[in-house]
Amino acid sequence: MITDSALFTLGGSRAGCEFVLPCDLWPVNVDEDQIKQVIHNIVVNADHAMPDGGTITISAENIKELPGSDPHLKPGPYVRMAIADQGEGITPGNLSKIFAPFFTTKEKNSGLGLTKAHSIIQKHGGRIRAESEAGAGCTVIFYLPAALQEISSCSADLRKGFHQENKRILWMDDEEILLEAVGSMLKILGYDVNLAGNGVDAIALFTEAKNNGTPYDLVILDLTIAGAMGESRRFKNCGTSIPM
What we know:
single chain; alpha/beta; Heat Shock Protein 90; Rossmann fold; 7 helices; 33% helix
């Protein structure tokens, strides 16, 4: 999500991105679209701060406990994200105003991007701030609560409730390469897998399995299939009705 949001925002820009993202970055429980908006708004500001181009460094790290005391943050683990530009920086007098509505020092900016980012992060139980020195660029830093307990509980429930042994899966996709690749992976993992290239074949396999007393434990359907039936239509006529 971080890399996709940043690279999409910089499409056609003179600026480039450098990512420093650990493989074991903790999960966060967030509204994906809103956090994408936060990243977009901060990256836009960083891009405008470097009209002749430059590098925007985007990093993230796991924080077990935040150093010092912050009355606005609850105790617990956080994911810290920083977006740094190589622009001229922000003067101390302006630094305290950058999250205020309509404050801007750039002609291209509306003055609302960082205000929206500030609001979104606060609503997620996080905190956002900025660091800058004149001539040394600006770094916007925000913290989001890590969702370690929720993910751990969910994973445990999934492992407990769905074992590979003797589980039957129906996998439908109209792209033959994808169909075979995913089908092979599921078989390697120990599942009994049947493949279908379209919705009609999937319904036939589903109906046959049900009538034989060997129904599928899981059905995976492609969302849209050109000129044929995909998940976007109602998957029925199987003796049961499954709204998709």
